[in-house]
Structure formats: structure tokens, C-alpha cells
């Protein structure tokens, strides 16, 4: 069941990627995307601190960034 | 040029002098750096009720040396103190445990969850990352991170390559990271499933006799753990307001994954503890994660939603939903609520306790962090841009973990004990960016 779920998820991601070629904006339409708070890693310091907390308190790590190593807290 | 009169000469001289002075004054000004150093700093407090307290400071410095040749350096210092769950079960009477060093004991009251209050450490982490384009559409990045604790050292190397296409609306990236970790706990590494020796005047005739028993539970001084991470990423601009990211990551851990401070209680059919055994985990673990994130620029603010599914060969599956919404209060301030939900299933070798009449499994751990659990975080951040352009932010959050029974029947007195206590924590943080 879990394997099926993960495969379905991967399939849905790949399907959505297939439709991406027609997506996007022209360079002069990037006004909103260029805002600092629209960067995927905006608030990087907060995200790093959160990753450290959850790495040490939960069994899963990574996803947004690399998962492993660097701390004896887990 | 022929000068016609004195007035013209004076006027020409004045103009020349002014332009000379003007050019001197321009030359005297320091040319302003279009990309100065940018510092992001933060101080975080993390405090659990009756358990761990941590203070963590971060300084992150980055600079664009031109043409997107970017250096990023980071320094993190954290200090931990407090108590941590040992994995032993509560009992209807007081229990005495030996500290990991073998020196000293601590006693836990009747019906209380055993916590080891020896937990304290200071950690220093330094890292550097260099990113630059290598052609119009290709970008590479490489970095090194080192961290040092009293009983743990780590060196992590990483490298990645990214390619933009479709007018930079799409980016495909591939990254790799390799971590070399060394653990050297106080008192050495315990022998798997050896029974904790507890000094007792009635049981031991001399301290030497106890020392022999304690030393029999000790193995090597140190061990290592290596982690290889591979990550494939895809970022797509959807429209003028929306950007999306997908990551697939695989992480392979080899080496010592056991927690040397954790034990399992062996209980009889009435639920009474007969011994506490040091835990043992497999020496490898392979994790996979699927991560999706979307950011949407609304007129009133920015929405940030992400979902992660992770699965591994310890049979731990987890789901994480993380959402933030930044409401603009004015042109230079915002309020940002944060909500995170997390759920995990138990590792196949997780056991809240062991039964005396059953054989000891090959691997077992009573660490609640490997058990079934849900957790949520709810928080609020307020941020503002100061008159000089610096940014100041305050964040306050509440985090709660609710461990669950993954289908284990508690015998006898254990039915009256809280085997799956919740953990509650406050997170408070101040950010300053200049």
C-alpha cells in the first residue's frame, strides 16, 4: 500500500512536470516573482533552525534540502 | 577656441575649476559596492516543559562578487541542557538509573516517565558555500560544513549542478552530499542489549564489583556513521504569481545509528521492570523523500505551502504539511502565521518495552522518536523593515508531539502508566538582517 502510494505520488509529479513546458512568464512579467519573499528559500535562517529542531525530534529529515548528518542530536 | 573678452575668460576658468572640483569630489567618494555583504542573524530559544532547553545563535553572511558568483558563510552555535526520555517505562515505584558515564545515578519518582537530566552539550557549526554560473544556463555550487560537539564530530561535503531552460522558467538540479560523522559518547558505546548496572549497597559488596559489571556493558570508545544524499530537483514558474518546486531525495546511512543513551525496559507479565537493556538499531538506513512546495504572490501577501512524504527501510513513513501566509500590514511590515502538521508511523523495530518471556529481537529501540506520532506547530512571525533598510523579525511558536500506541498491549501495571506522554515546547526567535 505504502509503495503504491509513493509510486502514485511520483507518477502525479511526473505528469504535472510534463505539462510544464507551456508554463512560465516573459522576463518583463517577473515583478512579483522577483520579490525577496517569493524566493523558495526566503527566510533561510528560519528554515535552517526549523530543520535542526525537527531533525532532532522526529524520525524524518530533509526533503527541502539534504537529509543527513551534521548533528549528534538524532 | 579664441576668447573674446575678460568676462569670457573668467567664466571659462570658473567652469573649468568647478568641473575639476566636481570630478575630484566624485573621485574622492568611495565607489559604493552594488553587492555589499549581507548578514542574516538570529537568536532562537527552544524550551520543552520539564525537558530540553536550547539556545541557538546563527550568523549567515553572503556576498555576490559579481556576475552571480556568490559566497555564503554560516556560523551556528547552540547550547543544550535538560532532560531527555531514556526509553525506560514508568513504574508504580521510584526507579534508580545509572548515568551514561557510569559515574553517578538519578532517581525517577513513582509513575513518572524516566528522563535522564545529564543531557547537556554545546555545538559549533561552520559552513561555506560557493555558487556560480558556468555558462548561460548552467550553475554549479559546492560547500563544506563542519560541526563539533563534546561527543560528536561531523564533516559534510556537498555539490550540485542546476540547468535553467524555457526562458529560465524551469530549472532542473542534481545535488549530492556526503557526511562523515564520528560519535564518542561519555562512558563509551554500550554493548547492545546489555543490562544497565545500577550500584546498590545490598547488591554489590564493593565498588570494584559494580565497576566490573558496568565495564561489561561497555564496548568501543567511538564509532562512525556516513550519510550519502542524492537530490533531484525541479523548479517551475507557473505564472506571474506562482512558483512551484518538486524534489526527490534519497539518503543512505551506513554505520552507527544507535542512540547510546537509550534503553528498553524488560517487563514481566505483571508489567514490572526486571532489567533495562541498552538499545540496538540496524547499521544502515535508506530513506526516500518527495517534496512539493508552492509559493503564491497574492495582492495582500505571500502564501507558502509545502508537503513532504518520506518512506524508509525501517518502515517509517511520514507526512508533513507546512504552511505560512505573509500578510502585508504596510509597505514595510508583515504578520506571518505558520502551521505545520507532521505524522509518522513506527519503525519496525520500535518496542515501547520488551516482555521477559519473549526472545530479544535482533534490533529494538524504545526511543519515542521512532514510534508512531503526530505533531503540530502553530506560530506567528512579525517582521518589519527599519528606516535604514535593515530588517527585524520576531517569531513565537508552539510545538507539540503526541506519541501514539502503535498496537502494543501493555501488561499489568503498565496499563496505569503514561507510556506515550506528549512533549510540549515553546520556540521564540529574534531575527536581524543588515
Q: Please state the second-level CATH architecture of the largest domain in chain B.
A: Beta Barrel
Order of helices and strands of chain A: HH
Mean pLDDT, all residues of chain A: 79
How confident is the prediction overall: mean pLDDT of chain B? 91
Largest sheet of chain A: none
What is the overall silhouette of chain B? Answer: elongated
> Can you give the helix content of chain B as a percent range?
under 10%
Q: What is the SS-derived class of chain B?
A: mainly beta
Shape of chain A: flat
The oligomerization state is heterodimer
Give the N-to-C terminal Cα separation of chain A.
Answer: 28 Å
Which regions of chain A are unreliable across 5 or more consecutive residues at pLDDT < 50?
none
User: How many separate domains make up the residues of chain B?
Assistant: 2
Q: State the largest interface.
A: A-B, 49 and 93 residues
Task: Explain the layout of strands and helices.
The complex is a heterodimer of chains A (about 70) and B (about 425).
Chain A: H1 2-18, H2 44-57
Chain B: H1 6-28, E1 38-48, E2 53-64, E3 70-85, E4 95-98, E5 105-108, E6 115-133, E7 138-148, E8 152-165, E9 170-183, H2 207-216, E10 223-239, E11 242-255, E12 263-267, E13 273-278, E14 284-297, E15 301-312, E16 317-330, E17 333-344, E18 354-355, E19 373-385, E20 391-403, E21 423-433
Parallel strand pairs in B: 12-18
Antiparallel strand pairs in B: 1-2, 1-21, 2-3, 3-6, 4-5, 6-7, 7-8, 8-9, 9-10, 10-11, 11-14, 12-13, 14-15, 15-16, 16-17, 17-19, 19-20, 20-21
